[in-house]
Amino acid sequence: MALKHPPQTTERLEQREQQMRQAEELLGSLPQATGVAKGLFHGQFIHDWVFPYPSLSRQQNADVTAAVASLSQFCDQHLDPVQIDRNADIPRDVIDGLAELGLLGMTAPLSFGGRGFSQKQYCRLLEVIGARCSSTSIFVNAHHSIGMRGLLLFGTDGQKRKWLPDLVLGKKLAAFALTEPDAGSDASNVQTTATPTADGSHFVLNGQKRYITNGAIADVLTVMARTPVEGTNDSAITAFLVTPDMPGFQVTEPRMEKLGIRGTATARLAFDNLHVPRENILGPIGKGLKVALTVLDFGRTTFGACCTGAAKTCLHLATEHARKRHQFGRSLAEFELVQQKLARMAAWTYAMEATTTVTAGLIDRGLEDYMLETAMLKVWSTERLWTIVNDAFQIYGGAAYFTDQPLERMLRDHRINQIGEGANEVLMSFIALTGMRGPGMQMKEVDDAMKHPFSGFGTFTHFATAAVRMRLRTPPVPVRSAELKPIAHRLGKQVKRLGTTVQATLVRHREEVLERQLVLERIAWIAMELFATACTLSRLDSEWVNGDRSRDAAAQFFIADSLRHVDHCFASLRDNDDERLLAAAREL
Predict the structure, then answer these.
(1) Cα–Cα–Cα angle for 405, 406, 408, nearest 5°?
(2) Rounded to whole angstroms, what are the CA distances from 538 to 45, 485, 541, 553?
(3) d(CA 202, CA 276)
(4) What's the rounded Cα separation, in Å, for the pair 222 and 202?
């Protein structure tokens, strides 16, 4: 007799099955080659992804130094973040000026009018913009890092020749249209449909998009829509290149009123029987999810650069104010609780820059899968920046609350960072589940092998040997400075501890781990801190080898503080108040 579940339980089980199918659709599209982030969940440290610290060639450094100088001069003379915020618009002469500097097509190939800059070089430039005006940095990011990135990566030769030259030169602007009323962080839940015409020459788009940066001013938009899978009742996401002159393209709200980043043109769009030519399909049909996720990788990397620039501005403002402002006969900088904030800001800013550089270096090396690293960078940097902005605000005191000070605008501008390009809560679950997928698949193979002991003996033996090796061997972290070897060894021990913890978590929760978001959050934080610590240690090691000890204290404080947070997260996996927390939430 079949067991009958109560209606609520049945619905919950069906939801869990749907979550598992969506997770497989998403995670199954990713390459499974182990990288630095995925390795952490196996208790391994793939050190050549982090060490030695990425550097630019002499020519690259000269090129980007000159570009940074030109951009800084332009921003000092023409970029007015207060006016942009007040008028809720980035002036066209500013956009044209950025285009003349090449910023709107900096990483595009020379053959299309770009500068051919690497991702590390480009991040240096986005840091300059991010330090001054969040609206402008997001505008540039929406155009270059995500708006036309799909065309650069997945476009056909014909598509590139048709659109790239004008986009690279800033004569036309680009946007990326993914978000819908029911699809944002849940990228696989796109509901906009694209139905092929009878002759197959066009696809007819119907649906809505919202929160689209540059949506009302863009000349070319990468639009995600759901297309039928031939021979089945299923559908899959496909990317399309859409232009606003196509009949059926509607801008239902050109500039949505916002709390912050007011200068960006954030639009609502609608497609009403919009006919898109088949030749405007971007990438393989049905593979739009891969296009979207790959594009977002680039956006999240430059997100880290923009956050670094903003963090440096906050640190500068807070430090200067703390030195000048006197209370109770002393400067604010002499009080330990203020020093605590300043030291934390300096440490996180140093680490943020290091983690951004290493992540950008993964892209520059042509590696295939860096999705987990970019997600970690986005979550970690935006969470830390929000605290940095808040701490700078606190040091300024009541003065920061008034509109003649930049921190009031920065507070409004940077709240969106933890939501945009994937809400941090969703990304933390993604980080943990993606990282644990490899170990989980290995354990499933062992579980299957146990049911067939003769044929599966080799699988079980291999797993058992690897598990014992992981527990007995601390992965090496190859620093060159002898003074840093104890720290490196401690980092290696924490990596090993994460590997064993992941196995124990999977054994304990099995498929239920999908819903254990409090557990997933702690595991994600452990992995993010270990990644940030590794990047920071790599930077510090490089600086010490080159005789630079100017930021020694901030770097060492970050590493110690980050690893202390890791210890706290490990402890809270065993000792927590989760049941009381959930009980209190259920009472509401």
Answers:
(1) 80
(2) 13, 12, 5, 15
(3) 5
(4) 16
d(CA 505, CA 407): 42
pTM: 0.92
Q: Is the pLDDT of residue 519 over 60?
A: yes
Q: Which residues pair with 331 in a beta bridge?
A: 326
Three-state SS for 15-30 is HHHHHHHHHHHHHCCC
The whole-number pLDDT of residue 349 equals 98
How many angstroms separate the CA atoms of 45 and 553, rounded? 25
Helix (H, G, I), strand (E, B) or coil at 207: strand
How far from chain centre, in Å, is Cα 44? Answer: 23
Bond into 52 cis (ω within 30):
yes
- The residue-averaged pLDDT of 527-540 equals 98
Answer whether 99's CB lies under 8 Å from 170's CB. yes
Is the CB of residue 127 less than 8 Å from the CB of residue 120? Answer: no
- Interior/surface letters 334-344, b for 16+ CB within 10 angstroms, e for the rest: eeeebeebbbb
Alpha-carbon distance 177 to 288, whole Å? 12
Q: Where are the beta strands (DSSP E) in 246-379?
A: 249-253, 266-277, 281-282, 326-327, 330-331
The reported pLDDT for the residue numbered 583 is 97
Closest C-alpha among 159, 235, 151 to residue 190: 235
Alpha helices in 134-287 (DSSP H): 134-140, 149-154, 157-168
Helix (H) or strand (E) segment spanning residue 562: helix 552-574
Distance CA 398, CA 391 (A): 13
| Cα-Cα end-to-end distance for the chain | 38
Residue tagged 């498929």 (tokens)? 511
Helices (H), 365-481: 371-396, 406-414, 424-450, 457-472
Classify each residue of 132-157 as buried b or exposed e, where b means 16 or more C-beta atoms within 10 Å of its C-beta.
bbbbbbbbbbbbbbbbbbbbbebbee
Are 206 and 272 in contact by the 8 Å Cβ rule? The answer is: yes
Q: Exposure of 199 by Cβ count < 10 A (0-12 exposed, 13-18 middle, 19+ buried)?
A: exposed
At 350-369, the pLDDT tens digits run: 999 999 999 999 999 988 78
Check: CB of residue 351 under 8 Å from CB of residue 535.
yes
Residues that are catalytic = 421
Q: Give the count of beta carbons closer than 10 Å to the beta carbon of residue 29.
A: 14
Q: Are 586 and 567 in contact (CB under 8 A)?
A: no
Helix axes 371-396 and 406-414, enclosed angle (nearest 10): 150
Nearest CA to 362 out of 342, 376, 348 is that of: 376
Provide the pLDDT for residue 441.
80
Dist CA 529 CA 39 (whole Å): 14
pLDDT in the model for residue 24: 47
What distance in Å separates the CA atoms of residue 104 and residue 220, rounded to the nearest whole number? 14
The CB-based long-range contact list for 513-521 (8 Å cut-off, 24+ gap) reads 513/433, 513/436, 514/16, 514/19, 514/20, 514/23, 514/433, 515/16, 515/19, 517/425, 517/429, 518/576, 518/578, 518/581, 519/432, 519/573, 520/428, 520/429, 520/432, 520/433, 521/425, 521/428, 521/429, 521/432
Let me know: does 569 contact 525? Beta carbons within 8 Å. yes
The phi and psi torsions of 222 (rounded to 5 degrees) equal: -90, 115
List, in order, residues 6 or more apart from 370 with CB less than 8 Å away. Answer: 35, 297, 359, 362, 363
